Amino acid sequence: MLFRLSPEVLILLIPVLVFALVFHEFSHAWVANQLGDPTAKYAGRLTLNPLAHLDIFGSLMILFVGFGWAKPVPVDSRYLGNPRIDMMKIAFAGPASNLLLALISGTIIRTTGYMGSLTTMLVMFTQINIMLAVFNMIPISPLDGSQIFSGFMVRRNPDMVYKLQIYGPQILMGLILFGMFTRISPIWWVMRPFVDFFMFLFAGM
Prior knowledge:
Layout: H1 7-34, H2 39-42, H3 50-53, H4 56-65, H5 83-112, H6 117-136, H7 144-153, H8 158-182, H9 186-203
Helix pairs in contact: 1-5, 1-6, 5-6, 5-7, 5-9, 6-9, 7-8
């Protein structure tokens, strides 16, 4: 829970987290626009302005619970040339953008060495972006991974895809609450090997 962290850490962490979330959502909007869907653009989401993307309740959840969200980017599949594939591309754009940011910051860490508070911020930036990318690739609705997984499975098992879309938010919240109250997080258990792998790959840490 971020509010338990020291003010010094929060001063570094909050802007890092905000930019990572905003760039994630902007990337969804940018790819959708490139694929022919201007919905996000007309909704004012094709911007890096945090006010366009941050959700008040989701931001408070990050501060007090350690988990939260930004506003979902609106997408209208009727504008897309190949809705199934294009929706998968739009969904993947968010996690991919966070991995790109992590790669950039990790490369800076590798090449510059220790530079005090700047290095601390870069390490946080790398970790947060990797965690956002990995978390969002979990195939549970409403995470991006569920859209990608559904795109692969909708023709093979549409009933399963439908059920995952309907019950996914409850499953996800149940897993998060279980981790909060038991301090044994199934989500982190799944995420940690991937987070460690990318942290070592990008930053050598």
